[in-house]
Amino acid sequence: MKTLLVLAAGMGSRYGGMKQLDRLGPSGECIMDYSVYDAIQAGFDKVVFVIRKRFEADFRKHIVAPLEGRIKVDLAFQEQDDLPGDYSPPENREKPWGTGHAIWVARDLIREPFAVINADDFYGREAFDAMGDYLEALPEASRGQYAMCAYRLKNTLSAHGYVSRGVCQVNPDNMLETVVEHTAIEQGADGQILSHGKPATLRPDDLVSMNFWGFTPDIFQHLTDKMQAFLAANLEDPGAEFYIPFVVNELIREGAAQVRVLQTDARWFGVTYQADRELAVKAIQDMVARNVYPKKLF
Q1: Within a domain: residue 29?
Q2: Contact 134, 264 (CB under 8 A)
Q3: What pLDDT does 19 receive?
Q4: Which portions of the chain are predicted below pLDDT 50?
Q5: DSSP 8-state class, residue 272
Q6: Residue 213: how many other CB atoms lie within 10 Å
């Protein structure tokens, strides 16, 4: 059995609204609809959506109901007070706790190998096929045998503002050594990669993580342990977030996990900014016109 975990609890502050539910497709589809469609085609048996509790009614109506009979669906809720141990959030905490926490809240719903994606990113059919094949081939009861779909940096930039990207360092055996976070990345008029407005050492073909991971269920215990250490050091920082690449880096360094890098030239796009919306709509229209997707998914 293979499960897809979709992280859909973000607040969309730069986009100006709930981009997870923004209707971009010709029949009212949002980006995550295309991801679930691709996952079904790649043989995934279940999808778990991580959302905020206050979105549940709209989410069930617009996202869950059309999937009935097509794939098993569960919901997990990312709330600020759902923390390991005896920790409680400070009163001034407004942000979610980050992608590591978002994965952890699904701990009681997943007992099988699973993939993780962002709800507002389009990853492409090839990426789901590659991740599905990897998870399917894992021996039963595997532990610490993870994977990540990596994209070319030049194919992941926004034309409308800066982005943050985790740049991958990969060894000759195609195993991940570390992910280094770079912030305020954009492409200059001459095609050069800039960071904070200055020329960067990054290259257009560098491999980056777009938060498309494959995990075995032992990751949940690692997340519990790492998050307790994170909270002990950062509980009172209202902006601190528990990011999954930081956890993966530590597990690799400790020898507790190996991460296979699945390189793909699949087309990625997202809607970080409201201005990205037009390009996303056009990209979907083009794929529908080429019969990559039906005009109505579900």
Answers
A1: yes
A2: no
A3: 64
A4: 11-17
A5: S
A6: 23
